[in-house]
């Protein structure tokens, strides 16, 4: 029996309410301790290349143009034109209207194409609109869909509605992977982050994602630690691995390395791959490239050496 089938045959509310509470002091202390680990030069070089390969290079602005999206795709395919050894990013993430442009620009590259959907970033739309949004993006070429949950329904305790919407969107995705955005900055407590993580995974999410990047509080180390513990425990219980994507506010190499250390020491090597961990970012890539150039040449490349996104 699948996780989805088993939870639908029981009381979803009781299951989620019965999850162990999160020790706020403990989770913040552990996240802070992991953030102090030192990564030496050789390991740092490997970490930077891995982090580049984990980036979902993103543009989600009302002023996005086809030209901007094509330029972003070119950068994702070849982040450092002067260094053919620099790896490509994991994916380009755009609005549904820009999926046809990005699909053509990424053809044959191996870089995946992600699209936000389901009335991003608010999630405030009828289900039929969300499903049409999803199907349209997939038909236009999206490999991955980043959906937002209905936070109002979740916070009101209407877990069945949130669950059913995720199930329906997952079905509309077809072969495309589904990343479920929890918008953790609006969930108020770590307990809610844990509940939302489990709810999304039980409903069929391939990834759970922290944030839209459009609210005041986005990805943090403690929140991501709660989500990593959730995917670890979910796999132990149901035998299915789910990815994690912190998004918003991760701007420099030092922060990215902290997340990689956290993965290694919380869930292990199985998640140290773009297949199972992503950074949702726009400005992070340039700092990774500057640090990579420093390690390679001994000299910093100025911030104007790389394109601004």
Explain this structure.
By secondary structure, this protein is an alpha/beta fold. The protein has one domain: Aldolase class I (TIM Barrel). Helix content is 48%, strand content 11%. The chain is built from 13 helices and eight strands. It has helices at 3-8, 12-17, 24-34, 41-53, 66-77, 99-106, 127-139, 151-155, 159-173, 190-202, 221-238, 253-266, 284-297; strands at residues 55-58, 91-94, 112-117, 144-148, 177-181, 207-209, 243-245, 279-281. The protein has an eight-stranded parallel sheet. Helix 6 (99-106) links the parallel strand 2 and strand 3 (112-117). Helix 4 (41-53) crosses helix 12, helix 7 (127-139) packs parallel to helix 9 (159-173) and helix 10 runs parallel beside helix 11. The N and C termini lie far apart (45 Å). The relative contact order is 0.15. The mean pLDDT is 92.
Please give the oligomerization state of what you see.
Answer: single chain
How large is the radius of gyration?
A: 19 Å
Give the SSE order as H and E letters. HHHHEHEHEHEHHEHEHEHEH
Q: Uncertain spans, ≥5 residues at pLDDT below 50?
A: none
Pathway: Carbohydrate degradation; 2-deoxy-D-ribose 1-phosphate degradation; D-glyceraldehyde 3-phosphate and acetaldehyde from 2-deoxy-alpha-D-ribose 1-phosphate: step 2/2
EC number: 4.1.2.4
Family: Belongs to the DeoC/FbaB aldolase family. DeoC type 2 subfamily.
Organism: Actinoplanes missouriensis (strain ATCC 14538 / DSM 43046 / CBS 188.64 / JCM 3121 / NBRC 102363 / NCIMB 12654 / NRRL B-3342 / UNCC 431)
């Amino acid at each position: 029996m699948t996780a989805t089938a088993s939870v639908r045959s029981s009381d979803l509310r009781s299951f989620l309410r019965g999850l162990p509470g999160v020790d706020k002091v403990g989770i913040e202390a552990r996240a802070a301790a992991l953030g102090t680990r030192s990564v030496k030069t050789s390991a740092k070089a490997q970490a930077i290349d891995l982090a580049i390969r984990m980036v979902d290079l993103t543009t989600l602005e009302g002023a996005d143009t086809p030209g901007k999206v094509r330029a972003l795709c070119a950068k994702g395919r070849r982040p450092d034109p002067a260094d053919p050894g620099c790896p490509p990013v994991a994916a380009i993430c755009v609005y549904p209207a820009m999926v046809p442009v990005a699909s053509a620009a990424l053809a044959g590259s191996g870089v995946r194409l992600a699209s936000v959907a389901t009335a991003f970033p608010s999630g405030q739309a009828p289900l039929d609109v969300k499903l049409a949004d999803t199907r349209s993006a997939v038909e236009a070429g999206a490999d991955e869909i980043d959906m937002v949950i209905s936070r109002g329904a979740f916070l009101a305790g209407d877990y069945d509605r949130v669950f059913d919407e995720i199930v329906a969107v997952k079905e509309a995705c077809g072969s495309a992977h589904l990343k479920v955005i929890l918008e953790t900055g609006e969930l108020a407590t770590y307990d809610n982050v844990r509940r939302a993580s489990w709810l999304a995974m039980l409903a069929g999410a391939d990834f759970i994602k922290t944030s839209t990047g459009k609210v005041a509080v986005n990805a943090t180390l403690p929140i991501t630690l709660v989500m990593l513990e959730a995917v670890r425990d979910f796999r132990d219980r149901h035998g299915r691995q789910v990815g994690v994507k912190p998004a918003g506010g991760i701007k420099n190499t030092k922060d990215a390395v902290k997340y990689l250390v956290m993965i290694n020491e919380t869930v292990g090597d199985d998640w140290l791959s773009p297949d199972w961990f992503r950074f949702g970012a726009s400005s992070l890539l340039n700092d990774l490239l500057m640090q990579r150039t420093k390690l390679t040449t001994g000299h910093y490349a100025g911030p104007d050496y790389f394109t601004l996104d």
